[in-house]
Amino acid sequence: MERSVSDDLDESKENVLTDPPFYLPEFEESYRYIIDDYDVPPRDIAIFIPCAVRKPYSSSPSHRIMRKIIDDVLSPEQYHIVIFGTCGILPSELETMYPYAHYHYMLGKVKDQKIQEDFLRIETDRVAGYLKKTRDVYKRRIAYCIGPFRKAFIQGSERAGVQIDLILPSKDIIDKIMELDCPFQEGSLNMEEYLEEFHSGLMQIRDMK
């Protein structure tokens, strides 16, 4: 990759990446930078949330909602947001770094079984690598995710041997949503039932001793 990983949002829109990002060398190089060179800021609580279609992620409607809930419960010095999914896994403060703000891809629309399996394999490895790196950086960890992102995160946690204190939404709430008529089987993380449980979960993590 010829570009520096410090390149930011002035990248031309003509250069937006549209291939599956987990295959691209740009994302592997940036992931290695995070694992090998980046100093992750220590915080009491790590909050893992999925990537979003709109870039930078914090400008997306879903992330704005999640961040508002987080800020209602926690003070900034208590937590660190970490983004994961088709992008790999990265501290949220790096969201404008190339290539994370310069791709467009939706795994949910992909029907190719091999691509789905490759995503799960690659993302599991990347989640495990980050959790190993940050084993002593955080005191507690909470993840908010559904679908293949959730599966990759759980497998990554198991592979790293790093416990996640709370993974939301809970199976009971997911099962309830799956009974509804939603465009996606598990619905959206912006659904009221999920968001209410996320808020409660953050309070639970905050109050852990």
TrEMBL record:
Pfam family, one: DUF5591
GO biological process, one term: tRNA processing
Keyword tRNA processing applies: yes
Keywords: tRNA processing
Domain DUF5591: 34-108
UniProt-recorded name of the protein: DUF5591 domain-containing protein
